[in-house]
Amino acid sequence: MNHCHISMPGRERVSARLSWVVLGVLFAAFPMSSSAETELEKLRAIYETSLKKIETDHRTARSGIHAGYKQSLRSLADRYRAAGQLEQMLAVRTEQKRFAADPTIPDLSKTADSETTVARLQANQHTRLADATIAMNRSVVALTDKYVAHLEIRKRRYTIDNYIESALAVKQEIERVRKAAPYTAASFALADSEATEKRAAAGVEPPKAAMPEPEKISGDFSVAWDARRTGGRARVSSRKGARLVALKHTGGNSLSGQTLQCAGGRTLVEGFNAEFTQACKRSNALTLSLSFDTTDMEQSGPTRILGASLDGHSRNVSLCQERERLLLRLRTTSTGGNGMSPEVYLCSIQPGKRYNLLVTYREGELRFYNNGQAIGVQQIKGDFSNWEEYQVLAGNEWKAERPWRGRMYAFTLSSGFTDKPEAVKLTSHQ
Asked: 229, 246 in Cβ contact below 8 A?
């Protein structure tokens, strides 16, 4: 389920209204009684069916936008060919090939025609996609709020009538829905888009993610993602050169505008795990940087924000959240396969605050930087000779459930140690 923002198209408005009408009619069809379990199952089924309808309509809308973009590119290439404009035609064909291999529509074109027609075409299509996703998010939030409001009425009535077990069952359903990925992800996305609209209305530019250009990243291997620069792809740089790899989302995770919304799923960055592991074993050094925020201070487990790991007990590195505490688990020959001997406390975080963090390590030296400030942390020892090839991912474990909920703006992982001047520069707000 992808999450983003715009005005609700007519067909999606109609779909949302129909879902709410159907829900209201069926609520009325099930009068309150002691048979709460049966009623609750029926109401939950109606809600889930309505959610799936919203998602299906959204996928259909996105498919139509993508089809329109392909047709627009085809028409543009034909127009340039007929006019004898070779360079412009080749630029459009380059974009056609890129889109065929990676069907995303960036809001900033990198083609030779970037200042003219292709860029404007991309901007238009990107806006339409964003608008369709915001419409979906609004439908999800409105539907869920209506469902929860009705459940609250039932819970109160069951309590008054002394059906306590029934009231508790309804209370659990309310809590489940409010924490479920569709609602939390949609709420995050809408909050972000509303904040962006307010900044735009005030003429204020949003802060840039503290993300270094690839050539500034330390080490002979790195993976860098920044929503503003690479959209749905990460840049992998090594001795072999540079390439782009797609981010793959499962569960409730998705790209929304200029953020990665983590809502209980996983975001995988694949195709280089062995290279990254071997590079770090050669250098015995690592840099991890991340720009993020979260409003959920009840997360525990701890939850996994970013790293390279297998499950709840095996990892190379994981940045974690335990309520308001930010923790580092880094595997070395001294800290063990789970990186917990010791687990390093980095800092406390606050809800809704943007953090630009950087952790860097070389044998016997661990350094941490938070929004341009060097922060002293517990030191660890050991090298990376015990590292194994694990999956690089954001928002969870690979083969266990430690879901993190929040928003990412940029991240890097590299096989080098970053010195203080560069670390301070990279983590300072821009």
From this structure: no
Burial of 55 (0-12, 13-18, 19+ CB in 10 A): middle
* Residues sharing a CB contact under 8 Å with residue 409, sequence separation 6 or more, in sequence order: 209, 211, 226, 227, 228, 258, 259, 260, 291, 292, 354
**Three-class secondary structure of residue 420 per DSSP:** helix
Are the CB atoms for 32 and 151 separated by under 8 Å? no
Q: What is the pLDDT of residues 346-404, one digit of tens each?
A: 999 998 899 999 999 999 999 999 999 999 999 999 999 999 999 999 999 999 999 99
CB 408 within 8 A of CB 209: no
Gap between the Cα atoms of 54 and 69, Å rounded? 23
Cα gap 118→121, rounded to integer Å: 5
Cα separation, 292 vs 53, in Å, equals 32
Q: Set out the domains of the chain in order of their start, with CATH numbers.
A: 10-201 (no CATH), 214-427 (2.60.120.200)
Tokens 């928002």, residue located: 395
276 near 350, Cβ under 8 Å?
no
Tell whether the model's pLDDT for residue 24 goes beyond 90.
no
Record the tokens describing residue 25, joined without a space: 């009619």
Residue of 16 and 77 predicted with greater confidence: 77
Tokens coding 274: 């062995």
pTM beyond 0.90: no
| Whole-number Å distance between alpha carbons of 75 and 39 | 54
Nearest to 363 by CA among 339, 381, 343: 381
- Residue 45: how many CB atoms within 10 A of its CB? 11
- Separation CA 372–CA 38 (nearest Å): 56
